[in-house]
User: What shape does this take?
Amino acid sequence: MAVIYRVPRNLDDYQQRHVFVSFVFAVLKKYGDDQAGVQAALITYYGFVSLFPLLLVFFTLMSLILSHDPHLEHRVVSSVLQYFPVAGVQLQNNIHSIHREGLSLIIELLIFFYGARGVASSLQNASNHIWGIPPKDRPGFPGNLIRSFGLIAIGGVGLILTTTGLSYVTAISRGEIVLKVVLVLLTFALNFGVFLVIFRFATSSTINTRKFILGALVAAVFWQVLQAFGSFLVLHEFKEASAVYGIFALVLGLLFWFYLQAQFTLYAIEVNVVRVKKLWPVSLFKSLPAE
Assistant: This one.
């Protein structure tokens, strides 16, 4: 009977002897132990809630500010919608600016801030939980509210800027390789800075900012990859869902996109914790019978 356990035991021994493999396994195990997937689902929910009001407000503001230059307005809106691969085209075709600037705009702003505040608050809760910060050491009111607005302002705007920058990479001709490389490196550097700020705002001040560096690098890489291959991933979701769900495929594609981003962000936080607390190597199995 002990022969049955030989393969998993050998696999476990192998991963514990190799630093990189054991580190990855430790991150995956801690992600599961922390039930971070549940936190990612909550972040996804609030992100989705805030999306449509945000776009309505954004389209309205652009139509007011850039009313004298429709061509520039179209370029700005199209660049921002690059944040949503494939779905951005659907959103642009189905969401338009509010033609009244009064009560409707105020209501949409309130809904947006409700959703955005939920994203920021959920991210703070998830980060502090993953780090094992006791409730008494977590920011209380109004500190957590200030941190939430910092996450919304710096994190949201920063990620939109990097997405816009990456959207211009595809527009550059093949002959301008150097310009493409420079733009990709600049957006990567900006992504790294944005995630470093996000992790700082999302985590208790008892954790030193230097401990977020590796996770910020990992998150920046994840983000670049998601933006590069996001169209392929979301298009696959659309193809699978469109035949069955029709227009609801747009909703499913957006939820899928938000959930990917939330998961990768929390994985990056797990990377920081595993490295700082030296939580590797770990055994894949709690107990195996001896041979």
Notes: Residues 29-129+138-277 form one domain.
